[in-house]
């Protein structure tokens, strides 16, 4: 298993402007979100209707390595879900020679999934989206560039997701989501998640892409044989802060200069001798389940079992996302 780690430079847009030219000059492989290609119609104050993906700049992907992400976190926060269908997204995946394209997924950061029930539901949603994207990718003959994506918050959430995924044994890269808003250390830290997944994958040659990894996490994991690549667009935050404090506009030309310096810093970190991977010091504790509150144990167990049955039906495509509600669980438990 190769130990080299590739750093993907996140770009907020795909246009032949200062950011693109700077990325090419740096010879930096680029990651963009499908959101960067969305076209919207303004239907009224605060009301926007998604129209389609803008394909006018996709020719750039023939000039320089570009990777595609579905943008699940932004969609979850801004739109409470994807404004497009899997077929729309796979049309985009088929339309350009992306180095790889990530499956659509459902992130589980605390600001999106506010309790364990929502985490479990969204893990089931991620498993189903992976399956639907993979089916379409195979039908279109582009499955060789498909990258499955795992989701979770506690380390064992990722194992739960892995267990529900379609067969991923033939894919060289496995994406790992919900990375950018967590600490390096701790029970739900990046090191813990990577350690659990690495052990679970065993002798499999599959390697991981960590979405939105912080610089400190990248430095810790640069020599880990399981990590294939990471991405970040953190330079945007620094540029926005500097522009605000300086009282000037954050133009793309200015952002490109900040991005160039920041990217070179990331490359310098990767050029250092790799740090030995520090396995977490303590065994991983299983994630706590939902607090049943005053419910009798037998009733709580029955509801939990029913919820799992509904999630399995959803993953199989037999029911819809709207069926994964507390009221539906109660109804099904006593039907």
From TrEMBL:
<dbReference type="Pfam" id="PF23859">
    <property type="entry name" value="DpdA"/>
</dbReference>
<keyword id="KW-0614">Plasmid</keyword>
<dbReference type="InterPro" id="IPR036511">
    <property type="entry name" value="TGT-like_sf"/>
</dbReference>
<protein>
    <recommendedName>
        <fullName>DeoxyPurine in DNA protein A domain-containing protein</fullName>
    </recommendedName>
</protein>
<feature type="domain" description="DeoxyPurine in DNA protein A">
    <location>
        <begin position="65"/>
        <end position="251"/>
    </location>
</feature>
<dbReference type="GO" id="GO:0006400">
    <property type="term" value="P:tRNA modification"/>
</dbReference>
<dbReference type="InterPro" id="IPR055645">
    <property type="entry name" value="DpdA"/>
</dbReference>
